[in-house]
Amino acid sequence: MAQLGSSYYIKYNALIYMSDIKTEDVKALREQTGVSIMQCKKALEEAGGDAEKAITILQKKSKETAAKKADRALGAGVVQAYIHNTNTVGAMVELSCETDFVANNEEFKQLAYDIAMHITAENPQYVRKDEIAEEDRVKIEEVLKPELEGTPEEKHDQIMQGKLDAHFRGSVLMEQPFVKDPEQTIANLIESAIQKFGENIDVTRFTRFSIK
Fold this sequence. Notes:
The protein is an alpha+beta fold. The chain contains nine helices and five strands. The strands form two sheets. It has a three-stranded antiparallel β-sheet with strand order 1-2-5. A two-stranded antiparallel sheet has the order 3-4. A hairpin with a 2-residue loop joins strand 3 and strand 4 (181-185). The radius of gyration is 21 Å and the shape is globular.
């Protein structure tokens, strides 16, 4: 929080004053999650000062906020690229939002860059599960069918669905653990951004390039 005026710190401390929650705990949670000071303070109060519980509370609220904004039109955004230092692999991602105001925000651009870096490292095939083609599902089902032998026939559909979900989970961007913070998925990352910026945000598309 360097280069911020003294008035900021007065307001900052005033928000936490007369609370059992320590200022440094709020600051640490804010730096970790990126959400506002007040939201961090409320989450810590609700969690009784437990940082891990506070993060869970914030994630739940982020999901609720994201769900409310999901139908908003995406009229702006950025295209960001990441090239690994070997110059043999990289990715481009289109991260969309509602307004140019958010699209021009440096933290929003950094989010797009981080996602491009993640895509480079983890090589997802789809943005979300509903993009998986039926023919792809059928092919994997054929491969997995032998694993159903010896299981109750009435549970075959349930078991197969679980195996399909497990197989495709590593290929779906939104369900992958974020490479810079495996404690949260890419979906969690997007939901936190929606809560932070107050706009609908989504990964519209991506492309990964590799020499090998």
